[in-house]
Amino acid sequence: MKIACxxxxxxxxxxxxxxxxxAGMLRESRLGAGSLVVLPEMFATGFSMNVAGIEDTSDQLTxxxxxxxxxxxxxxxxxxxxxxxxxxxxxxxxxxxxxxxGEIVRYRKMHPFGFSGENKHxxxxxxxxxxxIGGLRVCPLICYDLRFPEPFRVGLRQGADCFLVIAxxxxxxxxxxxxxxxxxxIENQAYVAGVNRIxxxxxxxxxxxSLLIDPRGNILADAGTAETIIAADFDCEVVANxxxxxxxxxDIRADYGEIE
Length: 260
Known about the structure:
Layout: E1 2-7, H1 15-29, E2 36-38, H2 51-54, H3 61-73, E3 76-84, E4 90-97, E5 103-108, E6 131-133, E7 136-142, H4 149-157, E8 162-166, H5 174-188, E9 191-195, E10 198-200, E11 205-207, E12 211-213, E13 219-222, E14 228-233, H6 236-245
Parallel strand pairs: 1-2, 2-3, 7-8, 8-9
Antiparallel strand pairs: 1-14, 3-4, 4-5, 6-7, 9-12, 10-11, 12-13
Helix pairs in contact: 1-3
């Protein structure tokens, strides 16, 4: 299955402008029908703490955009949106739509980034989710989740052979981004697609380097620091064959809490 990462610069809290940029890039790319396109965290607004100003629950502008674009191009597409929560707080979500325009997945970020104050504006999700597509079992996660191996293991137990990480990852910690993406692929013997943004916002500068990685940890495509789309074929048989050839996962223990 063709997996594509769309890396671009965002206009701050400007949904129409960012929708137009994504639509233009994808129309020009001519990705094949049925491809899975992955967009960055909060791709329509930038990584903002202004929940009331950017939430997508009231008018569902970004979700309707994703649904209609998926239907227009005959693709699957996943991107970051903000939904409204209790007491003025929000949820940082990854939402996906299929070629028919229907929702195929919705995941809420489990680890709000306390260092940036995200946890003061966004509530944590409580469930790892996965979905089947093109023979793959895909598990989406969001940015800071990458620093925690636990949700990846939960996804693995759900049968995941592909992880998607949508992010707004600052340039000053780009080496962590690169290293952790490869580590998650290696330790789970799974494909990993990590999509980041480029450019600046009022709070940070972003370094791009979206990656597509195979189950051995090899980089299949690297977006560098430019506005671009990268793509690669992910094959569930490659995952199964490698896991059989080098059966590391069969040695996982379930009794770590009992070890002294």
